[in-house]
Write a structure and sequence with these properties.
heterotrimer, A alpha/beta, B mainly alpha, C mainly alpha, A: alpha/beta, Rossmann fold, four-stranded antiparallel beta sheet, 11 helices, globular, C: mainly alpha, MetI-like fold
Chain lengths: 256, 306, 294
């Protein structure tokens, strides 16, 4: 049963998640739309990071995690074997909280994904490198030093390299788990500018604890609290006329 | 910059990927890991099987006698001379290693400045890295001649000299393990005592050592195990007299040097003398294993939980 | 003029402080003593080797005439043995560590292997000699060949490599694993391409430490029955051999008969210690140079 509406990338239905006996996500229902930036906000410990890590099954690396419910990715349940986890993760890239390039050259970082998935043609790899680095607005800064170690870059550059790395396998979705929380304001601004461009080619889901950031860059915003999805709507509505009292309390800074 | 060519290529490669390596690798690694287990079983098997042949041929009353004459026409296999040699060398070694090792540990962890520690630690590491054969040479060619000028009755091969040198060899082990244990004592506990006006020495003996006692005890037990199993120093410097005596100026044989003497000698396979090697090996193995289990038990049972 | 509520005996405090300082001084004297012993050891060995340690000594075969004797055979024997020990311990040790750290999930098998390795590390080396004698020399009929000695020595130093490799793998930050899994990599790909390269310096350091242990170890080889006098230079793994520590052993023992053997033993010790010093320096350099700070 394929979902005919190709504008819906993710259709989350009744998702529950437990760490051991602790329930971290409670009955989440949510549709994520194509070529939009969806922001996920909420106080720490609300399950927003857990949720985004469930979307590409990275959460399964944590011991003792159980889930129930469905997450349909273009109509296929990601928890069944219809969609291999390797394939899911190349179609859904991820950028983490702290920049985490490999201690290898800039070039080797970008081509890591294509290489492990069997692309060996040097010319093609070079082409991918240029396109991905351009896509992450890093090309001009590093084009002359592709063989330098990634850790010689600044924090902001490292994070854009990680974005380029995830773009190299040509994903459809990029998940970002607080991608700017470890960066300074200038580097943060650069990444926010980049997001606007990313939207054209990718669907972006970004977790952030910075409400201004969510308001600035996202099309839709979801507010999580204590593992529940409290409210999910167009960003301007969430920040303008929230329906739920708890959402209003949170965005007006009464808690969190 | 959508590049569907790459997408399709990757998709295709993932679909056709062989999962052989992901399935075979864990099995390969487990097999490799089991070789260490196999080694232990190999040791136990080797020792038990041939030791059994020994005990089947030699009555226990003979085993626990003081007469050890494996190569005589009327051979006798009393183990007491070997136990005696082993225990005496170990006691002498511990008399050196425990106080000196503890003093070094206390000094390093409680009194020495950071800079001094940084200079002293490598010296202990050098001592720990010297091969035992070098200590053997030291005992036989340097220490024994010096001791002979002090104790004229000392035999050229004796128990005293290798015992002392073995103690020196073990100092770094006692020192570093005890130091680790003392360093693990949280400074809050020490501050409590110094805050009440205790001197460093009082804090050390009334707070730090009692708190670190399990680590210190297990370091001593491990040191004993090391001394019992040490081979080259005693082989070179205490000789091979199979005497049952308590006179440490005389030559005696330890369990380890008995093994060396008989494997490098001509004890033909299949003789009782040959099997006696494994019997001694088994006893040695049980000794050291027990010591280690005791050390592990001490740390586990009385390990400090701060 | 004292208004103290407690009756503080000033003399008593002085005594306590004095005791503290006395004991501290005593402890530092003990440490100086240990250093002095180390110096005496090195001095005697150095002094005894003067006049004996030269190029001729390093490049000559064994001889019954002390002036002509050299340790070429022992050096080649030690190198040959490393040819067996290094690959075997690296493969076995790293694979075991990978299993324990990456694949095993806190189960009984894992705990059993861990306990087994820590106990194996404390088995006296001469017992490994008995194991080698029974299995490699007699059962597999390898005699006292380089292969038999190398295999025995490999098992002896295996725990060192396992523990070092485990530490190195543990030190690889989890965010690198995450990055790799996030790209759709499977476990083996992640280990091979990301974790092992990062852990390599730590693994190499451990391997070098294991090597220096194997080069200096004597007892297990003596138990294998390595021949006393060996005039031939080995040229295959199945040949009989001798190594530096064994050479020291026999020259020390026979110094009763020939006084000069003491000097030959001392000269060989210098060669052995210098080798170990170089190996350890390399290990320290690797550790410092490649220590990545994430």
């Amino acid at each position: 049963m394929k979902d005919n509406n190709m504008d819906i990338v993710y259709d989350v239905k009744g998702l529950n998640l437990w760490y051991g006996d602790n329930q971290a996500l409670k009955d989440i229902n949510m549709k994520i739309e194509k070529n939009k930036i969806t922001a996920i906000i909420g106080p720490s410990g609300c399950g927003k990071s857990t949720f985004v890590k469930t979307l590409n099954r990275m959460i399964e690396n944590v011991d003792g995690v159980r889930t129930s419910g469905e997450i349909l990715y273009y109509g296929d349940d990601i928890f069944t074997n219809k969609l291999k986890v390797e394939e899911l993760r190349t179609r859904v890239g991820m950028v983490f909280q702290k920049p985490n390039p490999f201690p290898k050259s800039i070039y080797e970082n970008v081509v890591y994904g294509p290489k492990i998935h069997g692309i060996k043609d040097k010319k093609l790899l070079m082409k991918i490198t240029e396109e991905s680095l351009r896509g992450a607005a890093l090309w001009d800064e590093v084009k002359d030093r592709l063989n330098e170690n990634a850790y010689s870059l600044s924090g902001g550059q490292q994070q854009r390299l990680c974005i380029a790395r995830s773009m190299a396998v040509n994903p459809e979705v990029i998940l970002m788990d607080e991608p700017t929380s470890a960066l300074d304001p200038v580097a943060t601004m650069k990444i926010e500018e980049l997001m606007e461009d990313l939207k054209k080619d990718y669907t972006v889901v970004i977790v952030t604890h910075n409400m201004q950031q969510a308001a600035r860059i996202s099309d839709k915003t979801a507010f999580f609290l204590n593992g529940e999805l409290i409210e999910f709507d167009v960003t301007s509505k969430i920040f303008g006329t929230p329906k739920d009292q708890r959402t209003e309390d949170y965005i007006t800074g009464r808690f969190g | 910059m959508k590049n569907n060519e790459i997408r399709d290529l990757i998709q295709h490669n993932i679909k056709n990927k062989s999962h052989f390596s992901d399935k075979a690798m864990p099995l390969f690694f487990l097999t490799m890991a089991l070789i260490s287990v196999l080694t232990t079983f190999g040791i136990v098997y080797t020792l038990v099987v041939d030791a059994f042949k020994f005990f089947a041929n030699v009555p226990l009353s003979e085993v626990f006698s003081t007469r050890l004459q494996p190569l005589s026409a009327n051979p006798s296999f009393g183990i007491l001379p070997l136990l005696n040699g082993t225990i005496l060398t170990t006691i002498i070694a511990m008399i050196v290693a425990v106080p000196v090792g503890m003093a070094a540990a206390i000094y390093l962890s409680q009194f020495a400045s950071k800079k001094l520690r940084k200079m002293l630690k490598p010296i202990l590491e050098i001592l720990a890295g010297i091969p035992t054969i070098v200590y053997g040479f030291f005992a036989y060619s340097v220490v024994t001649p010096i001791l002979m000028t002090l104790i004229p009755s000392l035999e050229p091969k004796n128990v005293l000299s290798p015992g002392l040198v073995m103690g020196i060899m073990i100092i770094p082990m006692v020192a570093s393990l005890s130091e680790d244990a003392m360093n693990a004592v949280p400074s809050i506990m020490k501050d409590g005592a110094t805050g009440l006006g205790s001197t460093k020495l009082e804090t050390t003996f009334k707070v730090v050592i009692p708190a670190a006692i399990s680590g210190i005890m297990s370091s001593i037990v491990l040191a004993i195990s090391r001394a019992i199993g040490e081979t080259m120093i005693v082989t070179i410097a205490s000789g091979s007299s199979k005497r049952f005596t308590f006179d440490i100026t005389q030559s005696m044989q330890t369990m380890t040097s008995y093994i060396v003497e008989f494997t490098s000698g001509d004890a033909g396979s299949g003789t009782v003398g040959y099997y006696s090697l494994y019997a001694v090996g088994l006893i040695l193995f049980i000794f050291t294993l027990t010591m280690n289990l005791i050390a592990q038990y001490i740390t586990k049972k009385y390990g400090e939980r701060y | 003029m004292k208004e103290t509520r407690f009756n503080i005996d000033e003399n008593r405090i002085k005594r306590r402080i004095m005791l503290n300082n006395r004991v501290r001084d005593l402890f530092s004297v003990v440490i100086v003593l240990v250093m002095a012993i180390l110096l005496v050891l090195l001095y005697r060995i150095g002094k005894d080797s003067i006049g004996w340690l030269d190029l001729q000594f390093l490049t000559s075969n064994l001889s019954i005439f002390p002036e002509k004797a050299g340790i070429k055979g022992a050096i080649i024997g030690s190198l040959y043995m490393m040819l067996v020990v290094i690959p075997i311990t690296l493969i076995l040790g790293v694979a075991t560590a990978i299993y324990l750290e990456e694949y095993a999930n806190d189960g009984k098998v894992q705990r059993f292997i861990k306990i087994n390795i820590s106990n194996l590390a404390s088995v006296p080396s001469v017992i490994f000699g008995l194991l080698g004698l029974t299995f490699f020399s007699r059962m597999l009929n390898l005699g006292s060949s380089i292969l038999a000695g190398g295999l025995t020595m490999s098992l002896l130093v295996l725990p060192i490599v396992v523990v070092a490799a485990q530490e190195a793998l543990k030190a690889v930050p989890s965010f690198l694993r995450e990055a790799s899994y996030g790209m759709g990599a499977d476990k083996w790909t992640t280990i091979w391409r990301v974790i092992l390269p990062v852990a390599l310096p730590g693994i190499l350091t451990g391997a070098i430490l294991a090597m220096s242990r194997a080069i200096g170890e004597t007892a297990p080889l003596v138990a294998l029955g390595i021949p006393t006098l060996l005039m031939r230079i080995p040229n295959s793994l199945m040949d009989n051999f001798t190594v530096l520590p064994i050479q020291i052993y026999y020259w020390t023992l026979d110094s009763v008969l020939t006084r000069e053997y003491t000097f030959l033993a001392a000269a060989t010790i210098v060669v052995l210690l210098v080798t170990l010093f170089i190996l350890n320096s390399i290990a320290i350099v690797i550790r410092n140079k490649f220590q990545k700070t994430f």
